[in-house]
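S.,

Sequence below, as promised.
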Amino acid sequence: RSFSPRRATLVNLQYQGRLLDQALVLYFPQPHSFTGQDIVELHTHGSRAVLQDVMTVLERMEIHDTSNPSTIKLRYAEAGAVT
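The prediction came back faster than expected:
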């Protein structure tokens, strides 16, 4: 599925045929993101169960970034988003 840049899209997050959550997805293509990289934001429901399920799937897929805040700030600075 393709997403329009900077536009919220309502999707069903599924993994192996199981519905994890209904969420908003926003796509920010490089270089027009805070980090200067392609970024996808997932806006899920706030329950611990949903967040745990989504994070577990992202870890299995090895596509999430668990950078510490200082690494993220460095990426912002490298992209010129902060001074």
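Helices lie at 48-61, 69-78.

Coffee later?
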